[in-house]
## 1
Amino acid sequence: MHEAEPYGHLRLNGHDVGIDALGRMMGTPAKQLRQYLDELEAAGVFSRTSTGTIYSRRMVRDEALRAKRADGGHLSLQNPAVPRKKDVGKDTIKDTFQPSIPPSLQGSPSSSSSSSSSSSTSKKKEEMPPAVAVEFDEYWSIAPMRNGKRLGKSEAARKFSALSVEDRKHVLLAAKHYAESKQVKDGIGIMDPHRFLRKGKDEPWRDWIEPEQAPPTNGHGQSLTCTKRIQGHDDRFLRPCGQPASPESRPNEPRCPEHLRAVPQLQQVTHAAQ
């Protein structure tokens, strides 16, 4: 019926397929085949034309819909609002690649994706003033790698270019201190460059404007400085206090006398330990 003319009718070479011919095609006795056909017709599985030809209503309906859509598609070419095909003479894949990319890489999905990513980063850098682009290159080279990679360059470029002149200087200094920290050298929780520039109430890079304090080797004394962070006018904690730590403060959390008094329970714990 799929190959018949008209489509969906039980015909072969322009003639209805009789019971005997259909039985030979299916390897079924004519008597048994008539029983099967009667059951299918009673269940409404197929219908018959006025001349008795068996046909599938669904197949006929699908063919009519296909023909209607084909006619509609042909007529739509007369509508000027319908988009036309692109110029088939242009090799869009080949013309997309830069001349510096070897022909052997053209058409590769991975190389295309890489080219698109590099192009996006380059575009971001082109939008930066030259001085900012130089500073960002310095920041990108200083930022520590995580698992041997630096990820999120385009996002990092966007965040870096949004910083003020003063903040960009602080970021470069903070990135240097962060890269030299014991935390990074031990590979503990290394932040990607774009996450290091995360905005919000707690901006990670501000924690590293001051160099990392070396842990005490033999107790602790006045040489240590208070690590309590100073709160700014906008409720951001800008930097550590930096005042000499009190001998009564904890070795792993040194506090100056002023900030130590602000935490009375800390004094109690310290005295109890002594």
## 2
Amino acid sequence: MKIHTLSIDIKEQLLIFISEGFSIIECAFADRNDQKIFALEAVWITKVIGYFNDVFPTSKETNQFLHTPYTGLIYAGMDAVVQEVVNRTDNRVQILERILDKLDIYYQFEPESLNLVVQDIDSFSQVRGVNHRAVEGHVHNGFFNKDEESIKRAFAEIIGESFVPNDHGGETEDLYTSRIRLNGQRVRTSIIFNGPGKVRTSQTRTKDLGAGGDQLERMMRTDSSKLYILQSVKPIAQDIVNTFEVFIKDQRSKGNHCYYCIIDGQDTAEILYAYGYLD
């Protein structure tokens, strides 16, 4: 089952809740007769349940946290209400620890890297079963000789996008869509396509993108997408990777947890082969 939150973020929050639970127990032992500890417990429970309801796809964790039975201990000189809070909180801290330990067993999470490969994208899932040797006759030294318009329309059909805009010199991307699925969820995506007529050298560089060589930068300066894709029929030069990394990190620092994906000539051929567009 998939969760649309980073694993590291959930683990960090669970550790915070565990620490807060121990703080409640500490307060109870510091003043064994202060029934105000009941209010601290109530606030803590509300925070935990609210977070579980926002993050987890089922009520399993909430029910574990609220309804797992336990055997309480007796603490000499402690008020009965305070004692009950200590026992409940200790039990729930243990439950949080078990949830933390088994998190990776039960769930799949958002990718933590900046860069996705095409196999990470659900909309292109069929490419996961393609052996690279299947497209050897179509790719020569990394070059896949297929016209850009055909590739763009094939991609649109694969992801279920019915609107394919015509190219013009000033666009920030060649295709903007909300049809691509990532981690089980539809995400807004910006795509640049680069056919054989736009790349004169053996590798695609930033200067090959757009009439002024600045299309990648213009696309990345908008923060409306969760996924940014560059497709080319040739291998991709390192300067494109560097540019993507800078802009993705900048967007993430502003709260847009986005990704980039580079689809080179061989990846393009494998996608088209997987979906029946190549012999």
## 3
Amino acid sequence: MNKKVILIAAGLYFLSAGTSLAFFSRTPSQNKELESPVPSKTGFKRDPSLPRNEECPLNGAMYTKPERDLWESRRPLGIMIENSKAARPQSGLSSADVVYEAVTEGGITRFLAVFYCQDADVVGPVRSARTYYLDWISEYGNSPLYAHVGGANTPGPANALGQINSYGWEAYNDLNQFSIGFPTFYRDYERLGPDTATEHTVYGVTSKIWDFAAKKRDLTNVETDDRTGKVMAWNTTFVSWKFKDDIAIAERPAAFSAQFGLSSSEASYANDYIVKWQYDKDSNAFLRFNGGVAHNDMNTNQQILVKNVVIQFMTMSIANDGYSEEGHGTHTLYGDKGQGKAKILMDGKVTEATWTKKTRLDRTRFFDITGKEIALNRGLTWIEILPIGQTVAVQ
């Protein structure tokens, strides 16, 4: 990490930790500089006459050479996005390369959307950091960008802000809105309606976040190690998944779906967190339903469509750190390192699989029952995290 940022890291951490709860009141912010109209478009237009023969290293999707030139100037960016009912519909999820979903507290889920080969005009609502999302974004090479608004900070195993500091990320590749602000992040009180709670009003623009990282943190596609002076590409340690082309339309089933609950069945809002993935034969992809309704991206007003759904089963526990957010209980923890079972929804069927991840920095990889690594279809991949024993109904 750059020496010039080390001196301010500790101060920023305690400022962020101390400000977290107060910041998320339900009274609209008086800091007007956080407010902004809908930002301008990112400006990139794909030339339809160019061949799409450049593979995205994150999800295998194929793009044009100018698009590759653009993504090779930056590094992966993970953004925390809320999924409480009041935060729907979200913006930007369909433009991500990979999305992770897991329960944070009390059966309410949150997303980590990872961008690299694509960008998004608006992303959000942006929410706070959690420890297991740090484990997943750590898979994306040297110093991946991690954007969030504050984070869990109570002492113990769920102390995400403390872990960010211990990793050497703070004021470097960690992009906490509390220490960055406008115009990289902004507030929009009207996007989800004038009665939206303040905690659901922070948004970002991927191009502005990448621009901030490059100009203020000297983080582009490369970085310089202060100790050795060596220039390192972000993907020096990155391990890509394996990818394949779609199966022929004649081989695709007419119909398939998978459904599961993410919240406790006893919770009054459990139905809001029932997820269904409905197979679409023509696109060889899955349409997402969230809480019984089509899950649309507000940017496009189109239903989210993904090529692969990977369901990972993990141990799930509660930190018992005395934290409570909106009455939803204490922080969730997952056994996301080691190995476990998985189900992969792809090509209109479910494949029984296993997953492995040795350490925080290692890539999670997926294998079939014979031990062969599974090649995923090219395109948006969605990772669902479920506790061991959770039922997934397929038909």
## 4
Amino acid sequence: MTSILITGGTGFIGYNLIKYLLSNTDYQIISLDKYRNHRITHSRVNYMVHDLRNPLDQTLINEMGDIEHIIHLAGATDAGESISNPSKYVLDNIIGTLNLLEYSRNNLIDLKKFIYFNTAEVYGPSRGTIFSEDQSYYAINPYAATKIGAQEMCLVYHRLYNIPVITTYTTNSFGPMQSDKKFIPLMIDRILSEQVVYVHADKSKRPMKRNYLHVDDVCGATLFLMKNGLPGAKYNITAKENIDNLKIVRIIASSLNKELKYELVFPRDSPLALPMLSGEKLRNLGWIPKKKFEESLREFVRWKVKK
């Protein structure tokens, strides 16, 4: 029986990944988190509490047993918050990743994959560029800088100690359990309460485009890479098409049967990046998203309203 360790399994992607793996595999799953919320009751899931700022102790290591795959999702993820509290991001993202790598190096002989979830934020603002995996990074906030630092530590452990690291860069995802602070859930709440929503546009008032992928497709890509990804390689997980923000809020308003009240605004210099990713490498390997954007967005709107 394959055993998989997921860090951050009670977070947005982690919660959905556990559900996805329960439906599509027979894996035994261990979720390692410092929080106790958003748990799934199932005989194949074992939740353990641990703060990765601290090394894993022997009691915990013995309890987890043999692990064949690690999906490292845990960490601090709010780019805006990182500007006011950089040290938290160093501890959660770099030190936390280092402690997980040390656990892997010293305890896991048969580890097959260590998938490190990075973020598109590391590339910096697109400014018309579609980023492939081999392009240089341009961090403009501490969150992105610490994710780059953690990634480089992962790659060093791959080169020095043969830890089978795969790095992924995820696009903007959406779906059940997502934070209400994120763009799509925030727009749902504001349109539902009949507020004016602000849509980012360029200087000529053309709505900006972003790339959105339903969380089930992120989970599908993760399982695909567990089976087909090459250690040491990097992969963007992204949808094929880019959708402008105005179209997104129009779909949401239509789904809610609400009048859309909006203003197009031009965002001046911001320490938050809106990068666009190329997904060609992963698609050439054989993975394609299964969810249609508009259909899955309307499905998520219905889920959120009923929540």
